[in-house]
Amino acid sequence: MKNKDLGFESKVIHLGGDPEPHTGSIMPAIHQTSTYVQKAPGDHQGYEYSRSHNPTRDRLQECLAGLENAKYSIATSSGMAIATLIMHSVPKGRNVLCGDDVYGGMSRLLNRVFSEHYDITFINTTDLAEVEKYLKEKKPYLLWIETPTNPLLKISDIAKIAKLCKKYDSLLVVDNTFMSPYFQNPLDLGADIVTHSLTKYINGHSDVVGGAMMTNNKKIYDQIWFLQNSIGPSLSPFDSWLVLRGVKTLAVRMRQHEINAIQVAKFLDSHPKIEKVIYPGLKSHPHHALAKKQMRGFGGMITFYVKGGMKETKKFLTKVHLFKLAESLGGVESLSNHPAIMTHASVPVEVRKKLNISDNMVRISVGIENCSDLIDDLKNALK
Ligand code: P1T
């Protein structure tokens, strides 16, 4: 049986996981080395220097490519590092479009690092007419989207946007961090590049910062690999090994994240001290029908508004016990976050206002703990 024909639950365990040839070790070796001995100048076994290639990172890349149904993958030292490499691939003078609701660090990278070099426009990609209008007008090199977005969990139609991008000769990049490849495969829907913060669901244990991109386009892969090798943010051998270890349980973790999140979302939705809940699995979500069609699940992220303002919201966040107040998401443990002060503080104030990333907004990453414990924790904090 070929690896590509395996089910997802088998792929996460077996892709990149052939026994080590020299020892039969079932777990991959951590090739914690910077360099490789050559028999004669240029006579080596495919490895010269670990910034360029490393056997442990190769195994992880093989696994990640397989999970996104891609031929190629590049793993980097953070999610922002892969975004930086992709942005460096934009030719001089070309424009860039980006979804208006993205991770605060992405907004900072585009607004404060790359805006000097490119004309970057933030657009509402849930509106296909707006997408087409800007593709036509700006003829961008690439359109970058998150779906679901961070933190508003807006859903954009990947297949329809991919078609539009092809029509206007632009690349579509989809940051699939929130869904993980278990729930969504953007390349299958026509995207050119899919990216992940490995820090989140793929590693799943909050002990690594990493990033990756996957693509089926050899030209794009060669270009990003050249930039990775030239600029240097390669994922370390040990972090590659940790992610290979973490990803083995991705399927079971994602299922439990979702089971818990659905119950937590329903609990919050019926609570008198909560103004509004945003979760793609709730019928009240404006893109619920698209979420059902495009994704194989709704994930573990919930955003909601506490009744009151900053004072009440801060009080709630100091009273939760299991939902630890910390940036990040996608680990086995539950986390809570105040986007306006924490993860999205670098989003310009007027944009936060427009998007309603307000003082009473909370984002939670629902972990895989006992769900009654999680609901009790929120109940107590809201009291
Ligand atoms: O943190 P890093 O591994 O560099 O990944 C950046 C990143 C990229 N894309 C998305 C959708 C993200 O959510 C992130 C990082 N986000 C957080 C740290 C957060 O708490 O939202």
Question: Summary?
Answer:
38% of the residues lie in helices and 14% in strands.
Counting DSSP E segments of at least 2 residues, the number of strands comes to: 12
User: Major β-sheet, in short?
Assistant: 7 strands, mixed
Spans of at least 5 consecutive residues whose pLDDT stays below 50 are none
Query: In sequence order, what are the helices and strands, one letter per element?
Result: HHEHEHEHEHEHEEHHHEHEHEEHEH
Number of domains: 2
What structural class do you assign from the helix and strand content?
alpha/beta
Query: How confident is the prediction overall: mean pLDDT?
Result: 98
Radius of gyration, in Å, reads: 21 Å
Q: Specify the number of helices.
A: 14
CATH topology grouping of the largest domain:
Aspartate Aminotransferase, domain 2
Which architecture of the largest domain would the CATH scheme give at its second level? Answer: 3-Layer(aba) Sandwich
Strand content: 5-15%
Give every kind of bound small molecule, once each: ligand P1T
Strand order of the largest sheet: 1-7-6-5-4-2-3
Give the end-to-end Cα distance, rounded to a whole number of Å. 55 Å
